[in-house]
């Protein structure tokens, strides 16, 4: 049995252990507590170690910029999904998908597997890439949500400047962002991981070691299999993954990437689960509309759809990323990547196409 396969089985068993322990974690606060430990302690420590162990130069500024370009490409490709699924762009469903489709949450769905399969240097590059994504989900999507809300509710009292100032403040209070900035400052001063005091490196090593098992247990505990709009959510996630693969193939070709690890990074980071931050923005404006007494059909966003999409997105992306990294070099070939992307878009769109044909035939 290959090392990659054994590693994959181990990671899947940890997710399975999380599923078995669901009965012990009956409160949502308990699972949120594990999530908070991951995002505030284990993941920041892992990212800090990875950054401090590589040589970073000014040319690496292109990494977050490339991710930001990807976010916008996904944003502009989202309306294609509306044509396929018959969704009105200026509807609560359309506006919700415009927020969620281009967002990424690599911390829980991607970073642990990059660390396990591609190593610390690749994880450090992934962390830099997430800087561009953070700018997009925190700033760009908030501005987008604000504009959608103002247009839908005709609100003229909200001041954008104060909200953005508060948003920037919250961004720099996140432990992962603080440690990324700290690592870049220390590296700029010529200080690397080997030159840090032993007691500091021990703290970071011990807390970092918790990341992968905690993330996998959390995925098993948090996965939700709700009813409701799961058919459209599954179709949207398939379309999102397929579009991502095609855009990744284009970027790999344009950037002329040849290193296997870099190619795999360019594939799996964009396949990350949808981010929680768009839901946070949606929730904020939904509360405003609660106070205004707006009917559900007149709301700016579809809160139920947003929650359901996030619930399915994490396990879906986890399985996809784990599968791709487990295959080694298979997906580094552009032909394989393009075929996989087209197949996933087709799988997402065909059920809706068949249902339309069935309705027309039954009416005839």
Folded structure, characterized:
It contains 16 helices and no strands. The protein is mainly α and 364 residues long. Helices cover 76% and strands 0% of the residues. It is globular and about 60 Å long. The N and C termini lie far apart (56 Å).
Mean pLDDT: 81
The biggest sheet amounts to: none
Query: Given the structure, what is the number of helices?
Result: 16
Structural class comes to mainly alpha
Which shape, going by the Cα principal axes? globular
Low-pLDDT sequence parts: none
Order of helices and strands: HHHHHHHHHHHHHHHH
Kindly state the number of beta strands: 0
Distance between the termini: 56 Å
Helical percentage: over 70%
Q: Rg from C-alpha positions?
A: 21 Å
β-strand percent reads under 5%
